[in-house]
## 1
Amino acid sequence: MKVLTANRLADGEAVWYANGGWAETIDNADVAHDKAAEDRLEAIGATASANNEVVDVNLIDVTVANGVVEPVRLREKIRAAGPTNRNDLGKQARPVAARAA
Amino acid sequence: MYRYDEFDHDFVQARVAEFSDQVARRLAGEITEDQFRPLRLMNGVYLQLHAYMLRIAVPYGTLNSKQLRMLGHIARKYDKGYGHFTTRQNIQFNWPALSDIPAILADLASVEMHAIQTSGNCIRNVTADHFAGAAADEVADPRPYAEILRQWSSVHPEFSFLPRKFKIAVTGAERDRAAIQTHDIGLHLKKNAAGELGFAVYVGGGQGRTPMIAKKIRDFLPEADLLSYCTAILRVYNLYGRRDNKYKARIKILVHETGVEEITRQVEAEWQEMKDADLKLPEADIRAIDAYFAPPALVERPEGDEAVKLARLDSKSFSEWLDQNVVTHRHPDYAAVTISLKGIGEAPGDASDSQMEAVADLAEKHAFDELRVSHEQNLILPHVARADLKAVYDALVDIGLATANSNLISDIISCPGLDYCALATARSIPVAQEISLRFASLERQREIGELKLKISGCINACGHHHVGHIGILGVEKKGAELYQVTLGGSADENTSVGEIIGRGFSSAEITDAIEQIVETYLGLRLDRTEKFIDAYRRVGPAPFKEALYAGEAKAA
């Protein structure tokens, strides 16, 4: 399973493709379950990159358990949460309500 | 310290305007990322895991209080309230928005700072001994030469697109605190028998995936020939350095593959062609730059001896800090102070906005407005009257920066690692924090004595692990972090590259392994005066291997 991730051009914020736009958290990211869906996400990424919305676009491996999207690699886990030595920074520092919104 | 002249001001302002325009065009979609990336890198802007990162140059690690205050201001206004001081005496901000970077650069320019050439395949910030101008063992201040090199190398048309990045370090003392033998060019400022100043020139040092110790190609280069000789080295490198393979593109590979004799011959031949041409430094020009670095007027403060003696009796913690973080100054009434950015359990090299401002205030009040960033990721007050040490200490206690651990095991060099860096393969800061907490007792650390522990989160070795007495390299293996340990490295006048001791350790095992190594050392040292590195050089890796892995061999 894969999701599409990038950094927003203007501020570098790590973002994931979700519900037709770029979300600041991975929670509701569109999950590709097959090659066709991956190709579709890849095309969306290429367009967003060409439109200068985002940079450094990548498809990354995830698992989904009980509806929770979790990156496979530590690197992507850290991108999705924030520095592991500073819980007060990054996505993990945001109130859960704001993250769900 | 050096003050910008009209040319410098215009140059930096012009660059701010140019890059601001480039950022605006990028944000408007007029240029692509492929077009923009080399432009942003030339201005110190990287893209990392969570955001952009801005690396700001601190030339040869020298700052004044106004500049440090501005860094604190930038941390607060544009970033997340802190900055990270690096092993190249620079500072990095981890969270700036691209759209804010023109404003940050304008703020920096207002205090004579910039981010030019902090990235890219050019000559990077020239680093120097952090005690320059203060050290008792110094022949002369190396910074005027670093400044001359900075002026010469800034947007140098011939050397802006080298095969790879290029780093120069300068020391003015026999005791090398600038790690010159791990640099592309290392310069050791010294005097010849006639009392004239010149340099021993080392070439081809470096760390990364292929660590190499620089080779001395000239024992004495007259100071007037500094630029012509460096030009000769860079020309040979630019011509013959490999451009086909990024991993073999540094000058260390060229020196290694060509051989020191042949590379010396090539450099000397190139130099002979132009040594007496326009790059010869006029004596008056050298002395003019020298004048910028004239030491502050250090008035006699003989009351310091008595003041320090009384304060020692009064406070054990002050006394310990004095023993560990304060070093001899060339003036007997003064001292140089290391402000540890390695609080127990803290991220090495990080300082908050308010800490930066408070340290700036201290420098202004007690240290002639001068500060340094050390390559060991600490801050330095180079000139403090001994009579004022207690006041400085008390102020540092108030801001949580009085940890008395300079050169001890918790004075760890660490790169940002996988918590921030896009190149990293494993985390380094949390490993540093856990080791620091394990050895939290300063009494235990002092018992262990001088021990330089350095951690990198990938093979690029920004955390200098190759030259740590104990080095830790984090890699990714089968999806998990694995930490490889090297022993016996050192980055001083007796530079050595550490040897891999054996199989790596998981993140859960690494701190125990380090403790095991330290206990092994304590058990075999001749006495308290035999430092870790000396003991390792005497006994070699065997006892450490035995302590770490013997159980496994038996189990197998």
## 2
Amino acid sequence: MNTSTFKGGIHPEGHKELTCGIKTSTARVPDKVYIPLSQHIGAPCVPLVTVGEKVAKGEKIGDGKGFVSSPIHASVSGTVVAIEVMEHPGGTFVPCIVIENDRLETWHESVRPPADPEALSPAELRSIIFNGGIVGKGGATFPTHVKYNPVEGSKFDTVILNGVECEPYLTGDHRRMLEKPDRIVAGLKYIMKMADCNRGIIAIEDNKMDAVASMEKAVADESAIHVVVLKEKYPQGAEKQLIYACTGREVPIGGLPLAVGVLVNNVGTASSIADVVETGVPFIERSLTISGDGIAQPCNYQVRIGTLFSELISECGGYTGAVERIISGGPMMGKTVFSAAVPVVKGTSGIVVMKKSTAPPPPEFACVRCAKCIDACPAYLEPTSLVKRAKRSLWHEAEAENVMSCIECGSCAYVCPSQIPLIQFIRRAKQAVLAAKAKRQ
Amino acid sequence: MKLMNSTNDLLLVTSSPHVHSRDSVPDAMRDVLIALVPALVCGLYFFRLPALMVIVSCLASAYGAEYLCLKLQNKPVPVREQSALVTGLLLSFCLPPSLPLWMAALGSAFAIVIVKHLFGGLGHNIFNPALIGRAFLLASFPVAMTRWTSPIDGVTTATPLGIMKEAAGQQLPEISQLFIGNVSGSIGETSALAVLAGGLYLLYRRHIDWRIPGSFLGTVFLLTALIGVVTGKGMLFPVFHLFAGGLFLGAFFMATDWVTSPVTKVGRLIFGAGCGAFVVLIRLKGGYPEGVAYSILLMNVVTPLIDRYTKARVFGGAK
């Protein structure tokens, strides 16, 4: 059993030194915020406000239907001036509630701390987290409260807080572990209470030993919580790979972490949980990294949800030159945006700006069977073989080769010396397999 | 507020990942050429002008054939991708220095046109092109392909493996001479030392997996050691077999060919071991004194089978 890392993976250049030593500062609160009605996995919210209506900070302005959903809240006080469709950093176009900031920062009456947070029952905690609009901050934006719902016949024995942050450039979680370790530990304790388990792990890569020291100090008096140091490797922070590295357990194909008794949350999510439970303030701001070679002054900002990328980029001193790409998230799994006029959403872990590259894109060669993709795949798949299936639309064969086990980390495409867009073909195969499954049912 | 990127100034949108390791096939081929330099220097030092002429013939023919094949197929001729030169150079390394130049050029063209491009070009060939080129020449011109000359002075003589097999009376060379390559044989294969230096460079650059040369050389050594002990030939016997002939060149540069060797780790161990077993079988029981080329070609045939039966267990699947 290998407890210090997973098998496979790659070592992309980190570029974390650009921002990891800079204290998180608070970004200027914008004059207008653009709050998308869809900021989580699951059905989008329906707006609870109309154009012209006054809203207060922390007021619920959109609510979801169904089990896997999460409400959204006003991140400033002011007036709703429009509800219009605009580009979402996820690459789609969704309706957004536009609020003009009155700069009064008036809190909504619903935002108030509970009398005694310690006395809250797991069910009450889950309800607070649901109403606070907490979703996973790692990027997948899964509504957090859903994870803790008890399932008949299964039980969590371990909660892992993900402080790995293996995406290049991003240092928001790193800074949080240095700046607010106590909030993370407090959040973890609430999570352990909700998950009804008494073992907590905070997993950090060995490229952040200062964060390890900071978190170890914060858990010095906690006998049930310990810090686990993992080797620096991408995608160490992928849920299944993280569970394997920390516990030696493999989540079965197609299964949930619950199947091996483990619950994983991001360190940022944990501190958001502590905040909403103890202060009543819902998810209306987050920290994120603004970095890349196209940014004049890379840094970490505490940002209101709905702030436009362009405003944050201006605040960082603007671009260093002609810009080619802006990535929402990290360069391995993040999504590029059409323009900088997109708002920060709950899942925005970073904004990476890349300068125009002078070199032309390299040509694609045929697969030379070097097997670098196979060695890199953390799911133990054969990406090149899946791509051959995908190119011929052999979806059944791709399915039989477990294409659905692909976590889309992109390691295969990163290492391919023939520059084959492996992960892109595999995504196509996954879509086709899902469509075929839906048809069968 | 003015947006820094209006809709008239759209950014480039790409699918993740947005960064790349910058590894490339052309760079890998360049590294293979670099790794072949020590063996090239030794070959030129020991076999002089005739070797140079054979090497140049092979390279020119390989490049010309590649160019023509791509042009005929209306495919772009890549500027930096020099796998044809690798094929040409590798083929010249396993030819006798005294080979008529037109034969060398013919073999090289055969390797590129028939073995590589008729099978679909880069990445699609089933067999190692250089080795088929050699096998083709050996089948077509058996006399010229088995006429060996001694290093430096170029006098006709037998190879160490030939002496071992057919000319029992003749004196075998010292192991040290065998190791540095001061013996008769093919242009680029005689110096195990020079080939090893290049092989270590490829391992260091992570272009080849240690499993193939490791299990290949290991199998030859173990089997010949066993035979040496059983037949009373002693421990010099396996050492001789390790350094003689084209074993190192085959193990580090031919068997490790990405396209024609297995992609799985276990598969590579099996592949190397199979190559080693065939080498010993051919050298000791076959009609030829040397069997490296045929061993690797035989294992090339079973590569798809090896890949199929050594597929890794998927993460989370039954152990």
